[in-house]
Amino acid sequence: xxxxxxxxxxxxxxxxxxxxxxxxxxxxxxxxxxxxxxxxxxxxxxxxxxxxxxxxxxxxxxxxxxxxxxxxxxxxxxxxxxxxxxxxxxxxxxxxxxxxxxxxxxxxxxxxxxxxxxxxxxxxxxxxxxxxxxxxxxxxxxxxxxxxxxxxxxxxxxxxxxxxxxxxxxxxxxxxxxxxxxxxxxxxxxxxxxxxxxxxxxxxxx
Length: 206
Hints:
single chain; Cytochrome Bc1 Complex, Chain D, domain 2; 2 domains; about 60% helix
């Protein structure tokens, strides 16, 4: 077997370096395109950096990439229904979705807003301990103690109260069926006061 000579090794290194540069350039292009999409398509509701100021539209900044990509795919396929999202998703290709999810995941979340002080203690207790009397599990078992979520479980820290309450209602009535099935059972077992308290506590988390 003929050993590699210096020129061959140099050529191989150059080729590998070229691939790295091409990949880096492609990644930069994808990120730039995602930023443009966020500004032109998504900013009206979610803010260009994902820090929505409208209480009925979710904050996306710092959201878990795996979770967000799944939701985008579900919106595009119609598995998750939304009259607002459907026409917007129709303008995006399947290839756009992972780059958009990655873009929002990298954005810095705005600080949470303190909720109703009277409900925060109740909400915190439910979030960390659940309700054994009604078989409601703690929220931190999926969404983590700090509310940042993990992988397929979304970040809930700092999320708008109105949006969170709306999602609880959709789960409880069976109108939102995508994602973790446990959420439907949880939403069905919680009272309106409990969901409000948890929503207020999550909104207060940094």
